[in-house]
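Below: protein 1.
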Amino acid sequence: MPAPQPLRVVSTNPSVEADPVRRLATYFDGLDQGVIAIDRRGRVVVATAPARAILSGLGFTATTGSSGRDLLRILAAITGSGLRDGFAMLRRARAEEGPQAFETVTAGRTIALRIHPVDGGWTVALEDMTEVRAREANSAELARIDPLTGLANRLMLRERLSASLDRLNRYGEPCAVLLLDLDRFKPINDTLGHAVGDALLEKVADRLRSAVRSADTVARIGGDEFVVIQAGAARQEDVTILARRLVDLIGRTYIIDGQLLTIGVSVGAALAPKDGTDAERLLKHADLALYRAKLDGRATFRFFEPEMDVRMQARRRLELDIRQALARREFVLHYQPQLNLKNQSVTGCEALLRWKHPERGTVSPADFIPLAEEVGLIVPIGEWVVRQACRDAALWPDTVSVAVNVSPAQFKSDRLVDMIVSALATSGLPPRRLEVEITEGVLLQNNDHTLDTLHRLRKLGVRVSMDDFGTGYSSLSYLRSFPFDKIKIDRSFVKDIATAPDGDAIIRAIAGLGRSLGMTTVAEGVETEEQMRRIQAEGCTDVQGYLISRPVPLDDLMRLLPRDPHDNPSAPGVHP
């Protein structure tokens, strides 16, 4: 910094009261703001104490006196310009009859300057904005940081990704985007609380930082979603190494509040420029790759492939068609009878959803049911199934019940019981003839809420059965927690009954368990006479499968059902 230069201040003089600038001098002297008054000859008439403090920091010392070049030297010092530019500022302020304002950094300080023309001269307002701008910069930085993990947030991610793509365009430097989604995080967050969940996310963030280089960027963009921008990723092998490291590192055990916690991570990767040269496309393609990683079992990584986009577009069209199918009445119900082995009569039918699409033809439930569950459409579809099944069953003999599968998503709804009450009342079907089938997936969610719903259904008189019994790890404990009316033995055990060494033993054990607990046992997937003979020998009470009947439309079922209790057209060997 140059040696301080004297700044001479013209003392106010009562003899010059005619000068408007000098008349302001007495007033300015009492201000606590940085103001300088300048007469028409460019002499400093007065400088307030705050103004003198600012000028002192810039190398000026205010002394009594006068100089026509004082103002110009001040402007030159603040703006880093020359005296000629100082004259230009004054002329512009005068000519435009408005203030000239700007801000500059001088000697490490941020100074705001505003020149106002007045009659007989100028006033110059000075303000040291250094601390204000520092606070603003700090706030701007905080606005780009995730407050929980300290990682970059969406805003900073966009900035960093734009900068990476700019380097790609300018210098040909490639990069990769890796989108990460934690596996099994939600159950931990829901069961152990948000405090534990937040602590877990902080540890995940620490591991992510340790896995990347300083040139890379790690961002948190959602609850348990993260993004890594890998700089200079010239080869897919480079990204593979990082993705494997992330899957391995995040999947290791965590210790939080004395508890051992294990999660995993699924990773989708897109490379620039191969998979896109703009931020939106890269993030979209990484998301498609992540979706594929989840489908392939999670705790793994996948790279974007063009076919993924094609499949996703087809999936979106299918989702749109599902949304329209209810309104267009394209869903229909087929029914598969269940045969009681003791009296060889049909005692119930399972309602199975079918979709007759005007262009696609018959769409397999395996293709649209999982998608309907994923996008939340299974609840209105499930409600339609319950209502339609009750209406159809009201036409059947009084001895035949109808079984309807209820998804975990429906059980989460507080209006499930009310909806069933409404369906029964509207159709006139007695509650005892409606059977709600649930899988272990229903019982794995909020147990207290689920058991309360089941008991409310039981109180109505609706029967409840457990479907696909034997495929879960805790089915026996569920049988103790709720008295099911029926357990349905999964078809995989029936298929293996004649080939697997323990096939008969499993069927026998489940049938014995049902008999001890007073529950009906239904063997699903019976297709051969040999399977029928073995199942009957092991003590099952009912069977369901192609040997009895394939799922059939309502009209065909009506011809199959007995017209009175003595008719029995559904015995084995009679198939539509």
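Below: protein 2.
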Amino acid sequence: MTQVTTAPSPAVAIQQPVRRIRVAGVFTVAVIGIVVLAGVHLTQGTSSVNAGDLLRLLVGHGSDDAANVLVASRLPRLLAGVLVGVALGVAGAGLQSLARNPLASPDTLGVNAGAYLAVVVVAAFGIPLPVLPAGGIAFLGGLAAAVLVLALSAGGSSGPTRLILAGSAVAMALAGVTTLLLLLYREETIGTFAWGAGTLVQTDLNAVTQMAPVVAVGIIAALLLASKLDILALGDDTASVLGVNVRRVRILITLTTVLLSAAAVTVAGPVGFVGLVAPVLVRLIAPLVPGLMRHRVLLPLSGLSGVLIVLASDVVLRAVFGGQAGVEIPTGIMTMMVGAIVLIWLARRYRDSGPSRSPGGSGSGLRSRRTFWIVAVALVFLLVVASVAAMLAGDAFLRTGDVVNWINGRSGRAITYVLDQRFPRVVSAVLCGAALAIAGTTVQAVCRNPLAEPGILGITGGAGVGAIATLILLPSASIWLLSGMAAIAALVTFAIVYLVSWRGGLSSDRLVLIGVGVSSAASAIITLLIVATDPWNLSLAMTWLSGSTYGRTLPQVLPVAIALVVFTPMIVHARRELDLLALDDDVPRILGVRLERTRLAALVCSALLTAAAVSAIGVVGFVGLVAPHAARALVGGRHTRILPVAALLGAILVSAADSLGRTLLAPAQIPAGLLTALIGAPYFVYLLWRTRTPQPS
């Protein structure tokens, strides 16, 4: 099985004796580090209370103001950091052992996203719940997400790429529902946007004191399962021979880790990637300390490592941005950036030893030319119907006669105003959908992965960073400047992903894994930019991150049209090379294709098409995944036919999503990107389920 190696193999680790002195030394260093960070952490804040005031309070000569600040603000924040760190650290170690995959964590398995959605659902419907019942709701949401991801990825044993893709798809779908609820119930869910990135801000000790026993129970349960996890690391068959009930152990460790993750989400929201990074840090020093991979050592040490990560992130955040930033900027943004770096580093160590895969649908056989033309004509008809329906539907329903009169310049003032607003939205949806579909088709062919798309490769996130930074620094920036900065950022992001992925050649799986890491970092940067510069302008964040055609004008859509006119012919010209790239690396070389140059040119065109679409309507996910795959299923695997069909499907999908978003809850509007995510994510899950291939241990 292809895997990322960061420590001795389980068979070796379980046989190593525990060197008690060395292990005790590691624990001592970790505890000292936590104590030092805690001391620094307590001196930071928005008030003028400093280290001297706290020292005088310690010896009994402090002021009442210092005592109040310590008890009401700083101590709850510190204890929340400790609780969240230890819970996520132990949960991450348990999940990685469960999946036998060093990329497993509460984030990559969708646990945090599921728990967060469950909490937001309760808040949105105005159900007041105390801390413990809220934790129970979070537990159920996280458990459902984890079970689904593990099922889709064959328990994680089918490799890091599949696990990450399954977790990303489920998390994106859950995030779409969460964002929809935040938009529709703004008053009920006020304050949950920043909390959704993981914040340690606490008004009292209530949440910490109520969740502390839950975390303690989870840690004790994990330690009781430690010996079973040691044996399980040898493989399911070996564990069964040695008398371990594998199914029971898997269920118990899943429940335990989800319980710990849900407790952390209840206290501080989904603090990103702590559960990924903490066990990795322990595994890094495992070769130097024999016995460190024994789970009775690994689990508690991962918990301490998690505390170090959370406290260090919070200390650095407030040291760099100031005390007030500690209130406005979620700590989870910092941990997410650190986690993204670690994910990229792990992906760099990934060795692709398996055979290349072809994009899904390419194996469905050739389709006749007649079939292609029937499909193409049918899709053109559907696109016309969708476009006309988009002009008619909305908060005010019109008739086709109104549109005819508007075209001829004979409509009334009210109808003219409505259609003048709708027409640019319809055009932007159609063009951006086509651009994203063509970009996704190209990416899937180059990566030979039916589950890849520009968003997963980080290109969409990079374009979003460029556009958001431009909007914040230059609110009156022209659409050309906005599109240019988005394009530059997308190209820079793509260059980073491509160069970092190169390791004696370009592995498709490594490219996807690194793209996911870069995409996560881009999401964290976007949230940081918005919260740090304009924390109250959440509509900007929601609208942009959800993808919306609201307020579009024809000049803002023009860059997308130009990108399509310029780059689509270039991709079509390389259609035969794309057919060969979708097979493997050897066949194109034998036939004289300049592999790297062709691959690079195709991905650059995809990046620029994506950047143009993102600058026009924001982040719209899954179009570049669903449209190409559906096109292959309809017309076969030749890109001469896939490209036009995918473009039509993408245009129809985004246009229909935009129309529904303007109509379902009118006058309230649902961003098109949320509906495409809600449509695309289940389809993505279906693809994963259909292609799941459980492997023996």
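The first helix runs from residue 10 to 13.
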